[in-house]
Amino acid sequence: MHSPSSDTRFAEAQKLLNYGFSNFTNISFGHQGDTVGTVTVNKGVKNVINAVLQEDASLFIQKSKSSQVVQNITFNEKINAPINQGDVIGTATYSLDDQVVKSVNIVADETVKKLNLINMTTNLYDTWFNLVR
Fold first, then answer.
1. 26-132: CATH homologous superfamily?
2. How far apart are the first and last CA of the chain?
């Protein structure tokens, strides 16, 4: 800002940008909606659902440390129905040197209703009907 001329300011800004582009990179681990696994749903009309990222999982980091980032995906221990689409069912954490640098929620990609007598009867009827075919 206090440089003698605009040419000097532009030259210094160019040096700063060149340093940034040559030493830093953006690592993408996944985008919003990407499936990171499946989870078992207890007491639901559906037994298994997909777990997806709630937001983009990316880091802006030094190139020399990009291979040292560790991804850890954890799901909640018990996932019981009912579950709505978008409910948080886990977490994806990204660590560098044993420090968490980014954390992204993992959510359910669909709604699962709780299993009840009507649902069980309907499922049983559908199963029998499909066997007779």
1. D-Ala-D-Ala carboxypeptidase, C-terminal domain (2.60.410.10)
2. 80
